[in-house]
Amino acid sequence: MAQTVAWAEKYRPTTVAMLVGNEEAIGKFIDWLKQWTSKRKPAKPACLLVGPPGVGKTTLARVAGNNLHFRILEMNASDVRTEKAIEAVLGPSRVSAALDSFSSDVRGNLILIDEVDGVFGREDRGGLGAILSIVEESPVPIVLTANNVENDRFVDLMKACFVVPLVEIRPRLLVSLMSYILSQENKALASKIVREIARTTHGDIRSAINDLQGAVAVGFREARSRRTHDLTEKDTLKGLFGSPDVGRARRALNESEIPLYRDQLLLLLHDILPYVFTSPGNLAKAYDTLSRVDMGYGRIGASRSRGMMPPPFNLPRRDAVPDWSILPFVLNELATVGAQTAENDIEHVIQVAPRPSQKIPERYQYRLWQMDRLCRRIARALHVSKRTALSDIIPFLVTAFQIDEEKGREIALNLDLEEQDIAFLVSESKTAPMPKGPGEVLDPAGFKLPYMGKDKFIQLMRAGLSYDRKAGKFVVRRLDNLDSVEERVSQIISKPVKFKRAEQSVVETEEGQITKECFVDSKLVACSKCEFVDDCPTQAISTLKFCICDETLADPGSYEKYIGKRTPAAQAEPQLRKRATRRKKS
Amino acid sequence: MWIEKYRPKTLEDVVNQKEPVEGIKALLRTPSTMPHLLLSGPPGTGKSTVALCIARQLMGEHFRNLVLELNASDERGIGVVRERIKGFSQVIQSTPSGVQFGLVILDESDEMTKDAQTALRRIMETSSRTCRFILICNYQSGIIEPIQSRCSVFRFRYLEEKDAAEYLTRICKAENVDADPKAIARIYEMSGGDLRGAINYLQVAAIRSEGGKLDLPTVNKVLPAAENELIRDMLLLALQGDFIKSRDVMYELMGKHGLSGREIVRGANREASRIPDLSNEKRVDVIRALGECDFRLTQGANEDIQISAMLAQLSLTGRK
Fold first, then answer.
1. Which of these three, A180, A204, A226, is where a domain ends?
2. A149-159 mean pLDDT
3. Looking at the domain assignment, is residue A5 inside a domain?
4. Is the same domain home to A86 and A160?
């Protein structure tokens, strides 16, 4: 059953006749290109192929160019296309192309500039203009491709070029292409599935063929055994979770109408699993299975259900050939996802469970595209990857904008960011919480916490806090045991909490400032590094303005004296308070 | 951005990293025999900078046109890489200047798939006449053996405090910032030897500081980013057994902050050591789950599924 050759490669068009769809456009383009081989040059030296992704614009240019014996020089969208760069690339090649054309077997150069609509912004300063000037006087054919030219910038370019529009491949054509491939491969597949593939791939030929190969790998057996009915989504899930019988679950997968050559079912399971299994043990087991199945799908390298989702939800498509031979094993593993009995009724779960894996990417899609674009610009300006831009640079920029918008703007302009990127950063800096940093701590004499329910409030009271309703602030009742209060409060509000210690509050107040340095062993030592800092008597005496450690050195007994002075007092106080509270209670 | 403004322009300006820099200088004495290079080391230690310095030294003013910089993690597909390198080597052929070869800088090449690397190996052979490659990676183990054997390998290390502090102080002088040595020491401590991170901290702190005076409290105020707290929330929620909420936080991290699965795992790894009240045994379990997840992310198709599986594992750990 192993299929080693990718059909998308096997059936890649090599001649113009093999191109599918857009017949009229192809004809126009070939006619234009053929004029170059005759003595009279065409009226316009450049041709602009416009159309949605995946309809074969670049393929058309390459195949036609090869068939007519042109040498193809390519510039991609991702090349930096400033005027100079374009001149540097195209300038000499135009000359050499003119010379080349005297040699026999190669007719000359064909310059292919992909995705011209990607030429914009400051980093491509003058790029469009440079392309335009080359286009107008080029002695060799230039082919440009673009997805979208509905913009004023392109008016001049459109005028200078011979424009050939391409449209999406019609589903019916895709169906006939797929049927052709099936007959060549001697495989059969329900026509319903073929139509479904044609419908869902939006005219992208390559992914249609990949899906077809996957569908054949899944449905190979069923297609011959002539199955009578397809299980709906609900019935499939019922079959999976209905009983711990793995064989039954596997059969349910076989008969399901959910296309298994995509990861659609995985995402569905991912959404409902926590509602099916509520006990952590079962949930962890089921999720482990799911994650391993997901690895299997990763290894297969099939197309994804969330085709056009932004980066974190969808890694860039791999070029590797889908390896369908693993699929049967992966499906066997998938069948074990319901090996434990479901803890909730499946029908009910399907109704109530939200579908975050679909909804959330949609909700954030626009925002992520914005960030993606911003990262691309930053990446180019700073010679870092987009991921580094996202993790290291954007947080930095946002903080810069938060602190001082003017300075942030200055930096952003230096990075060649555009107004809309800056606007995005500004809005980011307004919504992002001000970074707290490890330096900020709560004042035990009154601090605010976000609102929480009654249960947590009672827990906080038990942990040693009281609530000052007038000020709307929490207060720590006893200051002698801050460590344990910290610990318990952190637990309750599930965030680490630190309280200001007496020493620090002394530093803060104007009147009782301690010199931060003191002499221990006749060396200058900062308080934070002093080994006595925990029981330094200075912090307990708020009026003291200097560290007394040097005195301690001079009089070896003085330190003990301070310790002795302090300890009984510190111990006595809580005892007194305890008594007081007890009295209150009684 | 100071990280760009104060990026060393020549190999002489690169601080620390004596060993690799000296080796590279030796190679550059006879450019025509320069091999492919593999620079490996942690982030922010100057790998890309050194690569750019090499380019500048070899190409002089032409270097913008004759160097192809690719971030492997952005353009993972080998098809794209191959086409661009092919197109690029054609450009080199048709450029009538005194340059012998073009330079292809592949950043983060350890994130390329094994297949892509195998294909890259072929490309390195076929275009070796016109191109030299500089591969940059964090982990040398992520590069397949055959490529390693075709390259001279140079390892970069985290910067030492002395050199990093000196560089930061130099920037402060140039920018008229009066920086407290303690503040600088604190910035170094936060960055852990990553000079890019350190310079970014420094710039933010400088914006925050008043009247060009940079002291310890100012530095303490600006750190760190909000995402870290969300990651901690996610871990704590999972450990408390609230899987569904924890998964929602994960989606917020991915959706709103655009973090990839690997970044979440890396962040979680940092936070895992800071979670309060966790027995040693459980902490080990948490770290083990993170490690497993990190591996599975490289294999899997959907990051949200893989991270959720890890969270489900954590909610089991928390319950034990």
1. A226
2. 75
3. no
4. yes
- What are the tens digits of pLDDT across the range B10-63? 888 888 888 888 888 888 888 777 888 999 988 888 898 999 898 888 887 777
Which residue of chain B is at minimal alpha-carbon distance from A439? Answer: B220
Average predicted confidence (pLDDT) for chain A: 72
Q: How many domains does chain A fold into? A: 6
Contacts of A528 in chain B (CB under 8 A): none
**Residue numbers of the domain that contains A152:** 22-165
Structural domain includes residue A8 = no
B-chain residues near A372 (CB < 8 A): 258
> Does the pLDDT at position A564 exceed 60?
no
pLDDT at A437: 41
Most confidently modeled range among A298-307, A472-481, B158-167:
B158-167
Cβ contact, residue pair A387, B299, below 8 Å: no
Chain B residues near residue A311 by CB distance under 8 angstroms? 258, 260
Task: Show residues of chain B in contact with A313, CB under 8 Å.
Answer: 254-255, 302-304
- Do A105 and A180 lie in one domain? The reply is no
Comparing A503 with B153, the larger pLDDT belongs to B153
What percent of chain A has a predicted confidence (pLDDT) above 70? 67
A226 sits in the region (left: phi over 0; alpha: psi -120 to 50; else beta) called left
Q: Does one domain contain both A154 and A249?
A: no
Task: Enumerate residues 6+ apart whose C-beta is below 8 A from A16.
Answer: A26, A30, A63, A64, A67
Residue A408 lies in a domain: yes
Based on the fold, state whether residues A132 and A49 are members of the same structural domain: yes
**Domains identified in chain B and CATH numbers:** 2-155 (3.40.50.300), 161-221 (1.10.8.60), 226-319 (1.20.272.10)
Nearest CA in chain B to A300: B301
Q: Report the mean per-residue pLDDT for chain B.
A: 83
Last residue of a domain, one of A439, A468, A500: A500
Cβ neighbours of B65 in A, within 8 Å: 84-85, 88-89
- Say whether A288 and B115 touch across the interface (CB within 8 A): no
Per-residue pLDDT reduced to its tens digit, A319-351: 456 777 788 888 888 888 888 888 888 888 888
Contact A432 B304 (CB under 8 A): no
Taking residues A120-125, report their average pLDDT.
45
3-state secondary structure chain B: CHHHHCCCCCHHHCCCCHHHHHHHHHHHCCHHHCCEEEEECCCCCCHHHHHHHHHHHHHHHHHHHHEEEEECCCCCCHHHHHHHHHHHHHHHHCCCCCCCCEEEEEECHHHCCHHHHHHHHHHHHHCCCCEEEEEEECCHHHCCHHHHHHEEEEECCCCCHHHHHHHHHHHHHHCCCEECHHHHHHHHHHHCCCHHHHHHHHHHHHHHCCCCEECHHHHHHCCCCHHHHHHHHHHHHHHCCCHHHHHHHHHHHHHCCCCCHHHHHHHHHHHHCCCCCCCHHHHHHHHHHHHHHHHHHHHCCCHHHHHHHHHHHHHHHHHC
What's the confidence (pLDDT) of residue B38?
92
Question: Cα distance from A580 to chain B (closest Cα, Å)?
Answer: 32
Residues A339 and A365 in one domain: no
CATH code, A76: 3.40.50.300
Average confidence (pLDDT) over B292-317: 89
Q: What is the pLDDT of residues B240-251, one digit of tens each?
A: 888 999 999 999
Q: Does A14 fall in a domain?
A: no
- Which of B80, B220, B244 is nearest residue A439 as measured by Cβ atoms? B220
pTM of the model as a whole: 0.58
Confidence of residue A292 (pLDDT cuts 50, 70, 90): very high
**Cβ within 8 Å, pair B84-A317:** no
Inter-chain residue contact B258 with A371, CB threshold 8 Å: yes
Residues A92, A52: one domain? Answer: yes
Q: What pLDDT score was predicted for residue B309? A: 94
